[in-house]
Amino acid sequence: MKSNAVFYINEGMVKFLQVSMPKKQVIAADAINTANQSPENISETLAAFVKQRKLSFSESRVTILIPRSGTILRYMSFPSHNEDEIASMIDLQVGSRIPYVREEVEIDFQILSKTEDGYAKVAVVIIPQDVAMRYWKIFADAGIPVHGITISSIGLWLLYQQHAGLSDKPGAIFDLDVDRSEICLCYKTHWLASRELPIGFTQMQRDGYAEILNQWELTQSKISNDKPGGEVGSVYLVCSANRAYALGIEMAKAQNELVIKEVFLTQALGVARGFQWPKIITDDGVSIASLAGIAFSTELPPIDLIPRAVRETQERRVYQRQLMTSGIWVGLALISLGLAFSMGFLRTNIQLARLEKQLRDTKQEAFKVQDQLEKIHDIEGMISGRMIFSDLAHEIYRLLPAEVYLVDVSISEGHTLSLEGVATNSVDINQFQKDMVDSQSFSNVSLDYVNKRVTQQGEVDYFKITCTFNPGNSQK
Questions:
Q1: Which of 384, 411, 428 represents a domain boundary (last residue)?
Q2: What's the gap between Cα 80 and its chain centre?
Q3: CB burial class (10 A; 0-12, 13-18, 19+) of residue 69?
Q4: Which candidate, 19, 187, 222, 417, has a CA 20 to 30 Å from the CA of 340?
Q5: Which range has the worst mean pLDDT, 108-122, 217-231, 237-251, 255-269?
Q6: What is the residue range of 353's domain?
Q7: Vertex 151, ends 145 and 154: CA angle to 5°?
Q8: Do 348 and 419 belong to one domain?
């Protein structure tokens, strides 16, 4: 079943929501207490949770949501509408606006609006690289595939867009949780601003609504000069437990012209047959608003904070698979072509006679035919030696450790094979060499060199291995 799965992770809890697509029905949801757990323990907890609930993500788009408070948000204007140009300008300017150097952070941005004079206003989201890597590693160690990392504000913005009949005036969506709240200001398809507040239902019930109303007023005034369409005209109070009524009354008293709509998510969202909301959501009021915005949306989140090192590794692996697949198919095509020509040439005098007649009748093509015959002889020699490229590719792929990447593969006459690659540690290189020695497909295996180099991703080992390929002994 195709689905959208969303995990929201903060310092004390991991929330989970899975929605079937395209039916858009909730099929799984929960909130897991991870207070005082190390990243390693959280990975173990998540792995156990997935196993216990028998969850599958083989056909899922999995997104990690991180709190708005865990990122830096900057609003910037640039004299361009081109995204590549804007990205370059951000790289040049962002260093002066954050307490990090560019290489220490992950950055993504969304164009919020464009003006007729060629300017674009963008929201730039910044997260320390080590934080993004820590989040990604938690889920990778738990065996959960991750397709994107974004912030909770994006989920609220997408949830706002899913409401029909959006006003011509700016609107706000209030995500009300047990121990915190988040305000996201929107204007039609534009995301204007967002703030996370350390004020939740628990504090509101204990101390009243004065502080959150004060923060709401500050939020509006902070961006009053940048809001298109005038003042905020409507507010969505979104919660899991039905507790927003009193806050709505207080907000209406303060701004009687404000249209206030309560959204009780556990009643508003469609659910699959047999599904029941867990009590921690329905009774305790743990919010799933930002998760629902991502899970019920068919759009990819416009902000993605997956670490650069992870993206580069994923892209390199995809490229290597494509390259190896292409090599296998080319090898098979050459072998098939060689068999088609050479077997007929060697086995039947009739086909030989036809070929000779064609050569006599097409003397103007003699040089071309001669070149083709030379290629045929090369293929015949290849076949006689049983140099099967697919066997070679299969055996290398079988032996290659996950953290070792080949950058060059070459083979010379006499089946002498040269492999050059890179690894994050020498242990994997030694294991690769040992496995090649143990394989019947290779002999005279020699590790020519291992050189350490320092890259942006850290210290890596470059190496070269030479050996003789024994095609007749390839393992299937």
A1: 384
A2: 27
A3: middle
A4: 417
A5: 217-231
A6: 307-384
A7: 110
A8: no
